[in-house]
């Protein structure tokens, strides 16, 4: 795995709290890069946080995002989420917006949100009209909720990557920084209650060519830990639902303390549980284990509520999280947000062998996963029925491979076997079974010829009965390379020849053949394989 590991150090002061501010070694500058970048096609301003009501004591979480993406006569759209963390009530309003002002030298967003609500997010100014470095005002509203907050940044900007510019996904680039912790205070109106609030927030800024509407799906996390560490984490899926290695697909930026930040792809994420949305249309991961040798992290991230799904302009999950675990062996707790674009499907399975006719244990029972997903590791249960699917008994349990050798099965020759494969996720939320379309008769005397690696059967050509009397039956795989077949005596005399073996099931009359040893040969452009059989 390619891994980059960037450590940036500064003095332990708030010397950064001044405009202009240019983080050492980065391509970013403040306040200029808080504004719009006219040469970039996609850009968004994101903030989330946790609040406490001064009157009710309610715990709230919020997310507001302004997404610059001109379409359909609008300049983009605004997403506004509020959650009552005590009750689980979730409110979402996504609306197209027209930008009345969009500063290019500082943060200055003035938007009219459909149908006719004015919102602002801008740098705070003093009485003389001069911007106060890294302090902001946010006002967002809808017909049913509103949020008015003042921000005071407590930590210097976290610059992702070496310079704030890096590749993301298969073919995109992005500029990216985070303001990982601000003190916020103001007022909230929600569900008929208006009250003062205080709390903390996270701000993300991203601009470039990476577009979450059209690019690869991802799972993103922001984390604020009790030891004052902050983490920004991405894990991007390819179009094939794979999780590739490397920093374009997996990136973790860590604010360790005022002196140290780290950017790395040296981490692992294990998904521990999944949950369907109320309409069952999409399923998202809801619990993860994050481990990394960086700061010896071992953290469990869990969504606080399972219903925080945004449905417009596309469906994704955006909700608060709780964090527990250890850093450098010391217990920590934390909170944050998860943004999840990747949805998980139930496993789809195709049984490959046996699929009717006869079978025996010379060849493994095998199946194929038709919709693999690196974020959904599966295990398999293999069962068999000999009473026409009335009951099934276990053959293999919690298997990790898609094939299984059933050695010395406790079956009688001629038993009709139905097989059932059940694939399931770690929590069995994503689970599905497939059953044989038709039974396969167990025949321990089938002969398999041809060999592959480790001596296992390669083509599994079945020749029976052996010895034969009146008839010799040959079963070929449905897909095989053989273009002709011969039956010859032990002296090399050709008794029968077939120039095409398109049929997978053949029956050859042998009642007129003298008793003795015969050889059957199968020819392909690459090889010839053969086996002996007897005529009695």
Task: Tell me the fraction of residues in β-strands, as a range.
Answer: over 45%
Average per-residue pLDDT, rounded, comes to 90
Distance between the termini: 62 Å
Named CATH architecture of the largest domain: Beta Barrel
- Percent range of helical residues: under 10%
Number of extended strands: 40
What structural class should be given to the helix and strand makeup? mainly beta
- Low-confidence sequence ranges: 1-12, 451-457
Radius of gyration, in angstroms, nearest whole number? 32 Å
Q: What general outline do the C-alpha atoms trace? A: elongated
How many domain units?
Answer: 3
> Mind telling me the CATH class of the largest domain?
Mainly Beta
In CATH, the topology of the largest domain is named AttH-like fold
User: Given the structure, what is the number of helices?
Assistant: 0
Structure write-up:
- The protein is an all-beta fold.
- It has no helices and 40 strands.
- The protein has three domains: about 20-340, AttH-like fold; about 350-440, Sandwich (Immunoglobulin-like), CATH 2.60.40.10; about 445-535, Immunoglobulin-like, CATH 2.60.40.3080.
- Strands 1, 14, 15, 16, 17, 18, 19, 20, 21, 22 and 23 form an eleven-stranded antiparallel β-sheet that branches.
- Helices cover about 0% and strands about 55% of the residues.
């Amino acid at each position: 795995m390619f891994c980059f590991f960037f450590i940036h150090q500064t003095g332990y002061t708030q010397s950064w709290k001044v405009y202009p501010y240019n983080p050492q070694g980065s391509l970013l500058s403040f306040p200029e890069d808080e504004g719009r970048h006219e040469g970039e096609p996609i850009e968004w301003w994101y903030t989330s946080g946790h609040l406490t009501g001064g009157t009710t004591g309610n715990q709230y979480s919020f997310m507001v995002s302004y997404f610059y993406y001109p379409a359909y006569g609008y300049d983009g759209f605004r997403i506004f989420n509020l959650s009552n963390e005590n009750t689980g009530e979730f409110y979402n309003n996504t609306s197209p917006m027209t930008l009345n002002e969009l500063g290019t030298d500082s943060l200055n967003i003035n938007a009219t949100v459909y149908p006719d609500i004015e919102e602002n997010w801008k740098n705070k100014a003093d009485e003389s009209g001069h911007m106060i470095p890294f302090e902001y005002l946010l006002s967002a509203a809808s017909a049913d909720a509103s949020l008015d907050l003042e921000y005071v940044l407590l930590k210097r900007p976290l610059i992702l990557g070496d310079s704030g510019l890096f590749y993301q996904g298969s073919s995109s680039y992005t500029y990216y920084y985070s303001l990982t912790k601000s003190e916020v205070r103001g007022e909230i109106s929600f569900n008929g209650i208006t009250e003062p609030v205080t709390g903390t927030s996270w701000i993300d800024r991203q601009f470039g060519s990476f577009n979450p509407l059209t690019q690869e799906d991802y799972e993103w996390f922001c984390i604020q830990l009790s030891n004052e560490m902050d983490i920004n984490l991405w894990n991007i899926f390819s179009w094939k639902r794979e999780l590739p290695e490397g920093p374009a697909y997996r990136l973790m930026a860590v604010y360790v303390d005022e002196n140290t930040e780290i950017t790395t792809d040296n981490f692992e994420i294990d998904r521990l549980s999944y949950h369907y949305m109320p309409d069952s249309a999409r399923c998202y991961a809801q619990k993860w284990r994050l481990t990394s040798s960086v700061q010896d992290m071992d953290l469990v991230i869990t969504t606080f509520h399972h219903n925080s799904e945004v449905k417009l302009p596309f469906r994704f999950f955006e909700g608060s999280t709780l964090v527990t675990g250890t850093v450098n062996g010391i217990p920590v707790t934390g909170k944050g947000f998860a943004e999840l674009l990747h949805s998980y499907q139930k496993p789809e399975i195709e049984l490959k062998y046996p699929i009717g006719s006869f079978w025996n244990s010379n060849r493994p029972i095998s199946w194929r996963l038709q919709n693999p997903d690196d974020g959904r590791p599966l295990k398999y249960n293999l069962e068999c029925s000999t009473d026409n699917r009335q009951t099934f008994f276990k053959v293999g349990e919690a298997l990790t491979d898609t094939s299984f050798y059933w050695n010395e099965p406790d079956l009688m020759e001629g038993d009709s076997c139905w097989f059932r494969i059940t694939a399931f996720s770690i929590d069995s939320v994503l689970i599905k079974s497939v059953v044989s379309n038709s039974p396969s008769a167990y025949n321990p005397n089938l002969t398999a010829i041809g060999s592959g690696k480790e001596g296992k059967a390669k083509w599994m050509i079945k020749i029976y009965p052996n010895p034969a009397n009146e008839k010799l039956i040959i079963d070929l795989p449905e897909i095989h390379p053989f273009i002709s077949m011969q039956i010859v005596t032990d002296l090399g005399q050709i008794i029968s020849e077939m120039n095409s073996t398109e049929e997978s099931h053949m029956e050859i009359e042998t009642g007129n053949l003298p008793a003795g040893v015969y050889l059957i040969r199968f020819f392909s452009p690459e090889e010839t394989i053969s086996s002996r059989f007897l005529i009695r």
